[in-house]
Amino acid sequence: MYSWGGCLDRSATLSCTGLVAWQSAAAIWNGAGSEIWFMSQARFAQFLLLGVGMSSWIGYQATNRGEVPQALVILSLQFFFVNFYWPILNLLPVWPLDGGRISRETFEWLMPERGTATSLIVSMIVAAGLAINSLLALKGVGIFPSLLGDMYLGLFFALFAVNNFQEWQIVRYRARHPWDNEPDRW
Q1: Which of 125, 126, 143 is nearest to 134 (CA)?
Q2: DSSP state for residue 82 in the 8-state scheme
Q3: Cα–Cα distance between 182 and 4 in angstroms, integer?
Q4: Which of 86, 97, 106, 117 has a 20 to 30 Å separation from 75 between CA atoms?
Q5: Has this prediction a pTM greater than 0.70?
Q6: Domain membership of residue 41 as a residue range
Q7: pLDDT tens digits for the chain (186 residues)?
Q8: How many distinct structural domains can be found in the chain?
Q9: 3 phi/psi in degrees, rounded to 5
C-alpha cells in the first residue's frame, strides 16, 4: 500500500470523505489514544473544510457586492449542512457513529472490565432520547425545542437504540457465560 504522511493511503483517503478505516488505525499505531485520534480526524477535517468554504463564500459576496445567484446560495447551504451538522451528528455518543466509537474506546480505557457494556448503555440512552425527541417534535412537543423533529431521524436513532440494546444483551451474556466465548471449531 501507498503511504501518505506515515498513514496508509486507505485511512488518509477515507478520512477526507467522512469515513475512517478502523483496521488501518490499529495497524499503524498501537495505543489507547490512536484509535480515538483516527476516529475524530475526519470530523475535524470537515470543520476545517467548512472554514475554508465559508471564507471563500464571504470573499465572493464581498467582491460581487452581495449579489449571489440563487443556485450558489442553495449550494452553499448544502455545503454548510454537510460540513457542520453531519460532523456534530456523527460525534454523538451513539454506537456505531464515530462518537460512539470514541466513547467505547474511552470507557474501555477507563473501565477495562465493564467499558463496552457502559458505552452501550450510554449509547442506548442517548439514541432513545434523540429518537423520542425527534418523534415528539413532530407534534410540536419536543423535549429539546431547538432540535427539529423528523420521522426519519427518529427512526434512525430508534434503530440505533434497539441495536445497542441487543449488543448490550450479547455483552452481558458473554460476561455471565465465559465458557461460551470460545469460537466453535468445525
Answers
A1: 143
A2: I
A3: 38
A4: 97
A5: no
A6: 1-90
A7: 434 444 444 444 344 444 444 444 444 445 656 677 777 777 777 788 888 887 887 777 778 776 777 887 788 888 888 888 888 888 888 988 888 888 888 888 888 888 888 999 999 999 999 888 888 888 777 676 666 677 888 898 999 999 999 999 988 888 887 777 666 666
A8: 2
A9: -125, 150
